[in-house]
Amino acid sequence: MPAPLQTIGDLIDLERYPLDQPESSGYSTLLAECRRHLSTSGCMVVPGFVRADALDVLVAEADDVAGAAHRSYNDTNVYFSADDESLPKTHPRRRFYRRSNAFVPADNFGAESPLRAIYEWPHFMPFIRDALEEPEDEFFRYGDPLADVIINVVDEGGGFPWHFDTNNFTVTLAIQNGEAGGEFEYCPALRSSSDENVPGVQAVLDGDRGPVRTLELKAGDLQIFRGRYALHRVSAVEGNRTRYVGIFSYADAPGMVARVERTRQLYGKVLPIHLEREKAVRADRLAD
C-alpha cells in the first residue's frame, strides 16, 4: 500500500502550481494561462497537477472504491432526458446512444479520501473560480450529495457518448489511463444559456468533425471544463488497464442537484433531496 499523505503538498505540486500563494507571480502566470484557454476553448489542462509520486495513492483509492461504481449499459441522448415523441426522429432529444461505463458516487469519498481532500482544500475552489472568472456569489460547490466528488471507471470497450453536463463547471483529474483509447473529445460553446443550437448539435451527431477538439490527458493532469455548453464524449478504452478519472463539480447556484432521471441513470439511485428539488427552477432553461 502507498504511504499515507501528510499534507496537501504531498499530493498537489505546489512548487509548480502555488495555489496557496495567490499573490505570487507563479499564481498570476498560471491564472493568466488558464483564463486564456478557457476564454478561447472553454477548456484548460494543468499538466502534472498531482505529483507523480502521489499518483499511486489516488490509484489505490480508485481501486478500493471501484466495486461501488454503478455500472450500467443503456441508451441515452445528449441531455440524459426521456424520449419526446412530439419531435422529429432526427432531433437530438430522440437520438439515443449506448452508454457503457460506471461512476462511483460521492458518498463513497469520506473525510479520509485524498480525492475529497483536493476538492475541499480551501485554496482549490478559489483557484478554479478565479480561472473561470466567475463572481464569488455565483460559484458554488455542487450541492448534490451523490455527485460533488466522483470517479468515472471505464474498462475495456467502455466509453461515454456525446452529452452535455448538468452543472456549469466541471473539473476532472486524470488518475489512470487505459492502455489505449479513452480520448476526450469536445465541441467548445456549441450551445449557450439562451440557445440550444439544435442544428449544430444535430450536425455533430451526424458526423461533422469541424467543431470537435481532441485531448489525451495524462495521469495527474487537471482539466477545467465548461461542460454545460460544450458537447463532449470519451472514446472507447482499449486494453486491460482500467481508466480512472476523478470529477469535481461546481454550479452557479447554491444547493443545486441533478434531475431525478439523470441521477438514476448515472448512480442507480436517488436520494430524497433529488425528489424534493426536481421541480426547482434553474438559472437557465436548457434541456439539461
What report would you give on this structure?
There is one protein chain. 40% of the residues are buried. The chain is α+β, with helices and mostly antiparallel strands and 288 residues long. It has 7 helices and 14 strands. Helix 1 (25-41) packs across helix 4 (124-132). Strands 1, 2, 3, 4, 5, 7, 11 and 14 form an 8-stranded antiparallel sheet that branches. The chain has a 4-stranded antiparallel sheet with strand order 6-12-9-10, with no helix packed on it. A two-stranded antiparallel sheet has the order 8-13. It has a single domain (8-276), classed as Jelly Rolls (Sandwich), CATH 2.60.120.
Give a short overview:
By secondary structure, the chain is of the alpha+beta class. It has helices spanning 25-41, 55-65, 114-120, 124-132, 198-205, 260-267, 272-276; strands at residues 43-46, 70-76, 97-104, 140-141, 149-154, 160-163, 169-176, 180-181, 184-187, 213-215, 222-225, 231-234, 237-238, 243-251.
Whole-number radius of gyration? 18 Å
Number of strands: 14
Q: Which structural class do the helices and strands define?
A: alpha+beta
The ordered string of helix (H) and strand (E) elements is: HEHEEHHEEEEEEHEEEEEHH
CATH architecture: Sandwich
Segments where pLDDT lies below 50 for 5+ residues?
A: none
CATH topology: Jelly Rolls
Q: Number of domains in the coordinates?
A: 1
Average pLDDT, to the nearest integer?
A: 92
CATH C-level class: Mainly Beta
Query: CATH superfamily assignment?
Result: q2cbj1_9rhob like domain
Q: Main sheet?
A: 8 strands, antiparallel
